[in-house]
Design a protein that fits this description.
Blueprint (H helix, E strand, L loop, with lengths): L1 H17 L4 E6 L4 E4 L5 E5 L5 H4 L5 E6 L2 E6 L5 E4 L2 E4 L2 H7 L5 E7 L2 H4 L10 E6 L3
Parallel strand pairs: 1-3, 6-9
Antiparallel strand pairs: 1-8, 2-3, 4-5, 6-7, 8-9
């Protein structure tokens, strides 16, 4: 019985470790999209018009732009937005209005349970962490 519990625990921890799907996006200079293949997690966006230009590059993130506004989902659910360590809420439009896209240093999309545990129940649907350039 003890061996079954240990085996189950090992299998569960292996499953959680395989769910690591963090993507970091950084914004810089002029023109188009460039990918850095050093670690396959950094995507650079040039001349962004909105926060959606960063998020549309990440697999698993769906950006639906409609006339009434933009809807962003991670794994089919509305994520929590965190700007410079401060949880803003679940509204894309609010997060997009707070941040000037030219001040964005990086955008990180946290999808797995091991990554979002810091944000508790609010981050269960995924977390979009936005870091801005600080002067």
């Amino acid at each position: 019985m003890k061996k079954v519990k240990i085996f189950s625990w090992l299998l569960f921890s292996l499953l959680l470790a395989s769910c690591d799907t963090t993507k970091t996006i950084s914004g810089d200079a002029p023109s188009s999209v460039d990918r850095e293949f050093k670690d396959n997690t950094v995507i650079t966006v040039y001349n962004p018009l909105s926060l959606a230009d960063y998020l549309i590059q990440v697999p698993g993130v769906n950006v639906d732009e409609r006339i009434g506004g933009t809807m962003v989902t991670v794994r089919g659910r509305v994520p929590l937005y965190v700007i410079d360590g401060i949880p803003i809420g679940h509204s894309y439009n609010e997060a997009n209005n707070i941040v000037n896209v030219y001040d964005i240093d990086s955008v990180e999309v946290l999808k797995g349970p091991t990554e979002t545990i810091l944000y508790g129940r609010r981050g269960a649907n995924g977390v979009i962490v936005i870091r801005t350039i600080r002067n």
